[in-house]
Amino acid sequence: MRRKELSNDQVRITVRLPAALYDSLMDGRRFRHTGSNYLSHIVRKALEHTLVCPERLREEEEARAAAEAARIAYEQERAARAAERDARAAAETARAADQRQRAERLTAALKGGQRLTGRRAPRIRG
For site-directed labelling of 106, which of 1, 39, 88, 116 has its Cα 20 to 30 A away? Predict the structure, then answer.
């Protein structure tokens, strides 16, 4: 699209249209508007409508709301995954601490010369 400055209140642009679209626009010319400015009239009206169309504004607002809802859902899912990961890490840390305690009890029993069988033998699990 090329842009040319005409005056303070107008800008001239050149737009490339597919031939089929141009032909369909020109077919309606004989029914509505005649003259060389028919296409520019249609484009102006379409732009004006597009800029103030309540349907377009509603669709944009819905798109923004949907994007915000998707962002919130993503953040909640991300927080849930982080909480799950933290819970797994805490469980793993607790398991490791339990294993260390068992190993320390076994080491203390071996150093003290205790028998590892019978009623008083330290329990080793896992």
Answer: 88
Q: What is the pLDDT of residues 16-50, one digit of tens each?
A: 878 887 777 777 655 455 555 777 777 788 888 87
Residue for token pair 């205790």:
114
Cα–Cα dist 62/54, whole Å: 12
The whole domain housing 31 covers 1-52
pLDDT in tens, 53-69: 878 778 888 999 999 99
Specify if 43 maps to a domain.
yes
Give φ, ψ of 70 to 5 degrees: -65, -40
Confirm if 1 and 29 have CB atoms less than 8 A apart.
no
Following CA atoms 32, 34, 37, 43 in sequence, which dihedral angle do they give, to the nearest 10 degrees? 10
Per residue in 69-115, pLDDT (tens digit) is 999 999 999 999 999 999 999 999 999 999 999 888 888 877 776 65
